[in-house]
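**User:**
Everyone, produce one record:

**Assistant:**
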Amino acid sequence: MMTPDIFIMHPLLPFMLLLLSACSSDSDSSSGGCDLIANPDGPAFFKVENNITSGLEWYFQSGYAFGADMKPGECTNMGVASSQYTVHFQPCNIGADSCTSNFGVARSIVFSVIGGETYTVTVDNNFFN
């Protein structure tokens, strides 16, 4: 019986599969499976998971002039210096790339992080209560 060509392994197939898997992810290992949006070398990290059904706007009120507009289900991570930060969160109506308008109750949090740590904020239905 003849073996179809599809079952014959090409000698470069393992290498090609390894290369494909290494190139297929746009997330850094330090980002915990999220999009790494700034400062990939840390030394600490700030992670936001948007688990609400609307968009989410967040920005640093202290420490960094930085923020992000996130779609539902998105996760972002960024490197930060070891310090204390205040971050503002607001639900929003999200367009193709950014929030088009804000609604509901806003919330600010204060957190501290040291080198090697990741501070994670999971925004869910109870976050703004």
Notes: The longest strand covers residues 83-94.
